[in-house]
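Recall the central idea of this unit: under ordinary conditions, the amino acid sequence of a chain determines the structure it adopts. In this exercise we apply that idea directly, starting from the sequence alone.
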Amino acid sequence: MVFHALSVLFVIAIKLILLGVGLLYLFRVLWTYHAEGLKAVPRHTWSDPARSADALAIWLGLKLVDGVWAGVRWAINVLEEASADVGEWFMGHRGAGS
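Accordingly, the structure predicted from this sequence is:
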């Protein structure tokens, strides 16, 4: 019973740590996007591979944000066109039923 409770607490702690790391990464990607925009490029140095990997991860996050933003813009354009078509149909059929 005690082992089960400890394992549940351990799993919860791991989930909270992963959530914190994910939120920190998201914050860093959005901060870099705000500060440098999409022109940020990963800088690689052989003497510091950890920072190079970090820069690459941030750059990949920026590319992901750019792709998601492009998808959101596309969806908004599709919905805007559909709304215009529905409005046009409604205005054309407004008096047809009377």
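The helical segments are 2-36, 49-92.
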